[in-house]
Amino acid sequence: MGFKITSTGHYVPSLVVTNEDLTEFLDTSDEWIHKRTGISERHISTGENTSDLASAAAKKILEKRGISASEIDFIIVATMTPDASSPSTACLVQSKIGADQAFCMDINAACSGFVFALSTAAHYMKSGLYQKGLVLGADTMSKVINWEDRSTAVLFGDGAGGLLLEHGDEDGEDCILAEDLHSDGVRYLALTANQKDVQNPFHAKEESQPTYHLEMDGRGIFDFVIRSVPKTIEDVIKKANLEKNDISWVIAHQANIRLLEAISKKVKIPFSRFARNIATTGNTSAGSIPILLDQMIESGEIKLDSKEKVLLTGFGGGLTWGSIIITL
Ligand code: 4VN
């Protein structure tokens, strides 16, 4: 019995911060940010935490499908900015939406989080043990950014998105056609956030502990992405026994428009088939792929039940990277 994507949704905080707004406290310019990244503005939280963003997205997903939260068997939230180390953000979402029958957990694979979480959820669905699963990607990057560092503060935004996986009544193919997931922890220093040293009464440090913000080796990440992402795109297409022309859309993590252009060139899939929203969202980490997927469905560019094939590809901290081909 196959399972499919039956609903999608997203939520971004209402405050829009333009590049111009950032120049009030950072030595930067709209021209530089837009030319180098493709970003014009981003949504920034004024107090909503990751579970609030994820819950708002979840409510929209359920509303569109017209089902109650009690019907959900599991909630997986991909995030690198959880409200707390415990409880998981997924448990907070459960409580906020009233999904009282669900089991809930977070997955942290940074910007690849949604792809890794969708893979996890797909394997739960494949087991046949569960009927309905919510997969969410949500990050409040604004709480880990160093707002005095112009090289990173201009890149990120806040937001959440997700989808509902459901078993159908009739026999059908699964909506996941292939996956290709990778990590390389040896290169973890390329992107870190909130790294924590051991601090307890039995291990006293002489100096006071600094605050650890997001730190990124931009060049290093760029090199990694341009070496690894074209390969995972080609490999996942091969694993699905498809040709590049069978892919209607590539929904890549919205990290940098120049980088997406370079990936498109290298894999020889026209840039016109790379979905984009980075101009208005910035890099929303685990939120980026599901937000864009939902926007494409809302605009009618991608249709549920169309049998179209869409390639999702994520990459970022860990290092982590990977791709999934879904059919709608
Ligand atoms: C994947 C990527 C990035 C990323 C890295 C560097 C970067 C985005 C550095 C050079 C700068 C323009 C901006 Cl590729 C971040 C993540 C984390 O989600 C994942 N932009 N830039 C320039 O042109 O000088």
CATH topology of the largest domain: Peroxisomal Thiolase, Chain A, domain 1
Bound heterogens, unique: ligand 4VN
- The succession of helices and strands, N to C, reads EEHHEHEHEHEHEEEEHEHHHEE
Radius of gyration, in Å, reads: 19 Å
Kindly give the count of domains: 2
Major β-sheet profile = 5 strands, mixed
Low-confidence stretches: none
Query: Fraction of residues in helices?
Result: 25-40%
- Morphology call: globular
The CATH architecture of the largest domain is: 3-Layer(aba) Sandwich
Oligomer: single chain
How many distinct helices? 10
Query: Kindly state the mean pLDDT as a whole number?
Result: 96
Structural class: alpha/beta
Main sheet strand line-up: 1-7-6-4-5
Query: What proportion of the residues form beta strands (DSSP E)?
Result: 15-25%
- The top level CATH class name of the largest domain: Alpha Beta
N-to-C CA distance = 16 Å
